[in-house]
Specification:
It is built from nine helices and eight strands. The protein is α/β, with parallel strands linked by helices and 226 residues long. It is globular, with a radius of gyration of 17 Å. The model has no long low-confidence stretch (mean pLDDT 96).
Length: 226
């Protein structure tokens, strides 16, 4: 793994951008580093990767301390418990998984206490899967109204984890739907949402073709984890 894996993923991103008439700089590559030891992230940083996303607060805090000497851009991409917000709100630039009012309220409280505005993405549950977080598409507009009232939280876009399909092409309708939902929100509220966080190792090329601005790549960069 290491630099070679990063180069291979980079080439695939560039080809997907070319196919869809997009510029490479429109897509942020995030290393989804759950279960990966800090020294591996250090290696990828030396190869040129700057943005990493963690799923578990305790694991993130450990790596954050171990890698404090590096100018990493940390994102939080996992399901976030409200009682853990206080530990990360001053350490991550973007939270991908805002999905309920109680979490919004806690983010608002903790961000304002630190005098900052926490940038977030709203996670949308497109497959109606009970095991996954996310706002139901039909409730997105109402939830967004709540988000706009928050002074310490700024929504930059939407995120999804679609149902797994063996054939990545079968996931395309979910990515397309998320893009349309973003457009509807922009039209409804007269604003611009710069980000769509969608696509992982299995399906990121399709996601890029459908408008992803952040792809969350784990296995292809770090190898399978048990």
């Amino acid at each position: 793994m290491g630099c070679k894996s990063l180069e291979e993923v980079e080439e695939r991103i560039q080809r997907a951008c070319l196919r869809s008439g997009r510029k490479r700089e429109e897509v942020l590559l995030l290393g989804a580093s759950k279960g990966v030891q800090a020294h591996r992230l250090r290696e990828l940083f030396q190869c040129g990767l700057r943005t990493f996303g963690e799923n578990r607060v305790q694991e993130f805090l450990k790596k954050y301390e171990e890698l404090r000497d590096l100018p990493l851009d940390w994102h939080f991409i996992g399901r976030l418990q409200s009682n853990k917000v206080k530990y990360i709100v001053d350490k991550v630039s973007l939270i991908h998984s805002l999905d309920r009012r109680s979490l919004l309220e806690e983010l608002e409280k903790r961000a304002q206490a630190r005098g900052k505005v926490q940038e977030v993405l709203v996670e949308v549950n497109l497959g109606g899967e009970e095991t996954k977080g996310g706002v139901e598409p039909g409730k997105l507009k109402s939830f967004f109204e709540d988000c706009l009232r928050a002074k310490g939280v700024k929504v930059l876009g939407l995120m999804c984890i679609p149902p797994y399909r063996e054939d990545p092409q079968e996931v395309r309708p979910f990515f397309s739907l998320l893009r349309r939902l973003k457009s509807q929100i922009e039209l409804e509220f007269g604003l611009v949402l710069p980000h769509l966080s969608m696509g992982m190792s299995h399906d990121f090329e399709v996601a890029i073709e459908e408008g992803a601005t952040i792809v969350r790549i784990g296995t292809l960069l770090f190898g399978p984890r048990g």
